[in-house]
Amino acid sequence: MKKVALFLILVLGCTSVGISQQVMRLTLDECVKIALENNPQILQSEFYRKMSGKDVTIALSNFLPNVSADMGYNHSTVGPSSRMRIDPRSGIPVPEQPYEIKSWSSSAGASVNQTLFNGGYNYFNFAQARNMKKSAEYGHASTKQEIIYRVKERYYNLLKQQQLLQVQHKALESAKESLRLSKTMFEVGKASKSDELQAQVLKDQAELAVIEQENILSIAQSSLNHVLGFEVDKVIEISDNMELKEIEFTYDKAMELSRMYNPELIKSQYDLKASKNYIGIAMSSFLPNVSAYAGYSWRHEDFGRINEMLDKDYNWYAGVSLSIPIFQGLSRVANMSKAKLNYNYNQEIYIQTQKDIDLELKESYFLLKQAKKKISVTEIAVESAETNLKLAQEKFRVGSGTMLEITDAQVNNTEAQSNHIQALYEYMLNVARLQKAMGQLSE
Fold this sequence. Notes:
By secondary structure, the protein is of the alpha+beta class. It has helices spanning about 1-20, 30-40, 40-60, 120-185, 195-230, 250-260, 265-285, 330-395, 405-435, and strands spanning about 25, 65-80, 85, 95, 100-120, 235-240, 290-300, 315-325. It has nine helices and eight strands. A hairpin with a 6-residue loop joins strand 3 (about 85) and strand 4 (about 95). The longest helix is centred in the middle third of the chain and has 67 residues, at about 120-185.
């Protein structure tokens, strides 16, 4: 019975481990979609965009009149007075109010107030709200571009580290074969003990390189999980189905597109416009305010006669008011100075943002050209290194070569393959970086 229970525990344990380690297979497009749905930065910018839309509605409401209506009923009872007075006829002290007084009052009315001019505050406030809404929209688009780029960067890095691990495994297998061959050659007297020791060192170094690369791969996996919103230890598989995209436009065309479509740059433009509107808002506090108002009211003791409110016991009024600010401390002057400083601040941000984007575009464009050339160069280097390794191994087999030559050839072969893989993924990464600078990263 104990054996049966132990068997069931082992089976259930293995099953739970299998379930917990279930592998999720994802393409690049699926990773981008997951990140855009789960990344908190995306959600935050979306909330901010929606709030900015509400600010436009609030600013628009300032142009509309304020209308109010009221209706009321009041009953009051005033008790007899305790204060006394002298009755002039009898000379006897009597209460000022000897009896209880009751009264009833009913009222109804409506009023409207419309701002005609308030120094341009409403206009500038509405314009600022619209510009801030546009800024929030392009800020949201910029955040999406940044997240897409980050996903691609980490996705490509994971693919690169996977392929580099394969290179290290091949190098380890080759080193093991070289160690086996050196031992055989030493046993038959065709190789020295030094050759065998060098082969052992080569194999040990290859094993260490595999361990180091596995650690790098694990970190790359966690980095991708992090941007996707997963637990860092989640096991996923990604597919290597990328094609090298050819960039068919010139540097000048790429620069033109970045000025037209980069969302971060456009956001900065709207921030600058909004700060200019803020100067108008500050200026409006120095100008007079003009408003019109009108109202109608009715009052009677009997609420039942409210149906006569348009005929009797009514009061209506209308007018225009002018308010001229004369002195309000130093707040208006300070606000104007602050608004101008804020405009200069946003102007510097816009200029710096444009410079940063120009630099990113130039770097990515020319690094892309460099990576493309590097791909063809390293491809030839890989063929040459593989040939040299095979030649060194064959020479050692026939007794005309040394283990040192194999070691050098193996190191060169591993380096050549690693450089080729690095060039491939540098190309793809700089394609994404260039597209980000141009605002062309697709979802």
